[in-house]
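A favour between colleagues. Tell me how you read the following sequence-structure pair.

===
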Amino acid sequence: MINRKFRLTLVGVSATVLVFASATALGGSGVGSIFNLGKTNTVKRQTVLTGSAGSAAQLRIRNTGQGPALEALVRPSVPPFKVNSNARVANLNADELDGVDSAALQRRLTGTCAPGTAVRNVAADGGVTCQTLWSLGGNAGTSAATNFLGTTDAQPLVVKTNNAEALRVDAARNVGVGTATPIARLEASGTEIALLGTSLTRAVVGRLGTVSCGGMYAVGGCAADTGGIGVLGRSGTGVAVHGTSDSNRAVEGFSGTGIGVIGDSTARGVVGTLGRASCPGTYAVGGCTGSSPGDGVLGWSNTGAGIVSVTGTGNLFYGEAPFGTLRVRIDATGKGFFNGGTQTGGADYAESMRTTDTPARLEPGDVLAIDPEAANSVRRSREPNSRLVAGVYSTKPSILAVGDHGVNDPRTGEVPVAILGIVPTKVSAENGRIQAGDLLTTASAPGYAMKASPGVVSGVEIYPTGAILGKALQPLEGRRGIIKVLVTLR
């Protein structure tokens, strides 16, 4: 047995070789065929090194230089080395084997994969498990449970364009477009339009709960029966919600049984303007026109009230003209204060009084007298020159006093009795033809007035006190008719 230690220096590379071999190991034919170190061997025989060093390495090359420790120069297509063993080669990185391509490595596999698939796993016997490749043109036969694009850990999924991040899905399932830190299920950030919805019915809809929003609109918000808000607008210094329409309603509020639109503020709740007029002051609802023609506030209704004013102890109505100059005020008791006078329709002042006649049988223009058999009541006049004369059944009183009645209380069994003013009155010519300026009193015909006749006392005509109804404003043509009378009881 030959035990030799050789020192090799090959082209500037220093190495130490320990050889444990038999006498026939070198050259294949005894010691006579020596394996020369540091020289070029040209013996055309196989050199066999047979070692028996137990578990130690049979051949060790210690390299302290800068070049490779071992170099094998072979013909093309000839393997550089061969290992006759079923055990795996330790610490061998096949990806870094110079000169061995993937096709050569694949020849070691016993299984194959069909076109459109790739090797997913290689078994110890060379068999392979195949997996369908994802195609950019579309895939079929996939399962969302096993086939997906994404991550299997807590790392975000990022999509890039032009090597810059365009979309991100983080571990919390928030999606960010233009932002790497989304704080909502979908957050879009940038200098252009963040979210654009285009549709023939509903472009963008936000839902709270599972409620459905019908109709046609660009942006909608629907809240279930949880007390939530359908659409919320908030701004620090700008407009929270803005609506613009070229020819229709800019903002519309609708509610089934609740409030259609509510505005809440510590200064001005809801303000309607024409021409962007400004309305100073503190109020819940305001209307401003400025220099633009039009009404500040309009109330209109077919059957209900056009405008309703409700107050506790304040004023029901407060009117200024110009701004800051009070002209009209109606207090909480219903009393009106007018700076500049008042003007009403009608032409007389009347009292609502109970009648002992059937109200339906009375006619406007009837002369009415006090009923001596019933307190606070009137009836048609029945006798001439009666000092019980009370007034005329008014057709259109300018002011109607209703006594203890409320504004909306019914006045069943009562009639308007004109006691002052110009009133169309039923008259008769039974005491002579009536001329304008004649004093009138009750006639014998029920409900009629006639020309009053004065008495003469010491050559002076004196009309009966308490029996005069008023003064005729126009002549009577015929025996009976209706003329205007200036009612002035005396």
User: Anything to note?
Assistant: Confidence is low (pLDDT under 50) at residues 1-32.
